[in-house]
Amino acid sequence: MPGSQTGGPSLASITRERSIGIIGGGASGLATAHALRDHGFTNVTVLEREPQPGGKCLTFWHRDRSYELGAAIITPACRETWELARQYGVTTKLSLGVSVV
Question: Which of 20, 37, 54, 56 is 20 to 30 Å from 81 by CA-CA measure?
Fold first, then answer.
């Protein structure tokens, strides 16, 4: 069986109905699930220990003030990120000349 650089099976050798589990619902896990879906995989599950996805990209509140953690700024060079935001209806706001999710 042909393998990837890490020795595992290549995407071409895996049936699209095979169960795939992704550990972690952070940016990388969600991007991987999205890419697999785009390649026709139909049985992908993302496992996340927190009640919400996003990993270290989150908002937390302290004394009635919000604080953003993780990747919250999108520069114009992040074309793929902008496309994903558009596809999923993610809204941004302009702050200090950059867009903030």
Answer: 20
The bridge status of strand 20-23 relative to strand 44-47 is: parallel
Amino acid at 25: G
Q: How many CA atoms lie within 13 A of 77 on its CB side?
A: 0
Per the CB < 8 A criterion, the answer to whether 46 and 29 are in contact is yes
Each residue's pLDDT tens digit, 1-47:
444 556 677 777 778 888 999 999 888 899 899 999 999 999 999 99
Alpha helix ranges (H) inside the chain: 27-38, 79-88
| pTM, 2 dp | 0.58
Q: What is the total residue count of the chain? A: 101
Cα separation, 33 vs 70, in Å, equals 20
74 contacts 101 by C-beta, under 8 angstroms: yes
Q: How far is CA 46 from CA 43, 62, 68, in A?
A: 10, 29, 23
**Structure tokens belonging to residue 59:** 């908002």
